Amino acid sequence: MSSLLVDNIGELVTNGAGEGPLGIRRDAAVLVEEDRVAWVGPSAYAPAADHHIDAGGAAVLPGFVDSHAHLVFAGDRAAEFAARMAGEPYTGGGIRTTVGATRAATDEELRATVRRLRGEALRQGTTTMEIKSGYGLTVADEARSLRIAAESSTETTFLGAHVVPAEYADRPDDYVGLVCGPMLAAAAPYAKWVDVFCERGAFDVDHARAILACGQAVGLGVRIHANQLGPGPGVQLGVELGAASVDHCTYLSDADIDALASNRIDCMCHEGLHTTTVATLLPGAEFSTRSPYPDARRLLDAGVTVALATDCNPGSSYTSSMPFCVALAVREMRMTPAEAVWAATAGGARALRRDDIGVLTPGARADLVVLDAPSHLHLAYRPGVPLIRQVIRNGVPQ
Ligand code: NIG
Ligand code: FE
């Protein structure tokens, strides 16, 4: 069995036992055996190992868990971004542009984009990345999108209900029938989750409920794009269906917050009580669409479990950077640096219903990030600076 010791860690964020909400341990070391954390303790008492990384007093965190990304697409929408920065609103209408480009692309072109973005994210500390379909919107194009996504991640999401494609514009019921029937059947073997864009201009609450229920019936977990562009029923639908996560949450009513907050369970893990349905906030989307940011403080103060993710996609948020999202969350959404780092690691894990990632405790997957900084605070304090010195994924230095 091969082992790796990371020692001389000035600040270790465990998200487990330790100081404060991040479970911080000082002057610590982590022993990795194969792909798992085998031991965490004081650096002075660290056991010997086959391989050794001296963190030199730097901070070490669990790898980021990006629980919301759309990586299977072709082309870009830089001109749409420029038009927005000149005053155009974001409506989601550009999704159909990307659908056209994606359908016209070869498998190899789509695969190259997924690999490029996955690599970009990894270099910025993301060790787990969810990948959605949603730019194919035919049976064959959704199935191939998920087949390609599954080559890079086990966290794959069927988003055939991203928008109603142009050829079904005047018969949305027929499109919902296609999504729930042959498209789901072709996609499900490659998907772990089902998702719907529940929004005015995309899918209404009845269509969204029907599609999510069909996905659930074939064993997929539920997540939902909700309340991004305006108030709506999406968040409460997500809670009703026991979704792992409701994503965006930009426009929330008191009833939405209550629905999320009242749905608490005791997970017997470090943080004890948490909400069944996580609110995943995607500040890259508000940044890139020049929209008001979600009120993270309101969710956190109500006791809702919050995750942060990139929403990486060519339209509303073309960033693969979790450190950038952490900095935005702190600066623009009134999260403390500790809350933002927790949400980008353990929070993302909760949103994917995973307890083996987002933490650095014995038995967890050995996904570690060594910062070029003495503390997690620097992720928000030094925005835009490449602070990821080394990434270890599945026990393997990258
Ligand atoms: O999560 N809101 C829907 N889907 C994506 C945007 C997709 C696009 O604009 O291409 C999102 O923001
Ligand atoms: Fe999204």
From TrEMBL:
Catalytic activity from the UniProt record: 4-imidazolone-5-propanoate + H2O = N-formimidoyl-L-glutamate
Pathway(s) it belongs to: Amino-acid degradation; L-histidine degradation into L-glutamate; N-formimidoyl-L-glutamate from L-histidine: step 3/3
Binding residues annotated for Fe(3+), in chain numbering: H68, H70, H225, D311
Source organism, top-level taxon: Bacteria
Cofactor binding note of this UniProt entry: Binds 1 zinc or iron ion per subunit.
Record-linked SUPFAM superfamilies: Composite domain of metallo-dependent hydrolases, Metallo-dependent hydrolases
List of residues binding Zn(2+): H68, H70, H225, D311
EC number(s) from the headed UniProt entry: 3.5.2.7
UniProt keyword annotations, A-Z: Cytoplasm, Histidine metabolism, Hydrolase, Iron, Metal-binding, Zinc
Localisation: Cytoplasm
GO molecular function, one term: imidazolonepropionase activity
Binding positions for N-formimidoyl-L-glutamate per the UniProt entry: Y135, N313, G315
Ranges for domain Amidohydrolase-related: 60-375
Family statement drawn from the similarity comment of this UniProt entry: Belongs to the metallo-dependent hydrolases superfamily. HutI family.
PANTHER family attached to this UniProt entry: IMIDAZOLONEPROPIONASE, IMIDAZOLONEPROPIONASE-RELATED
Protein name, UniProt field: Imidazolonepropionase
Organism: Micromonospora parva
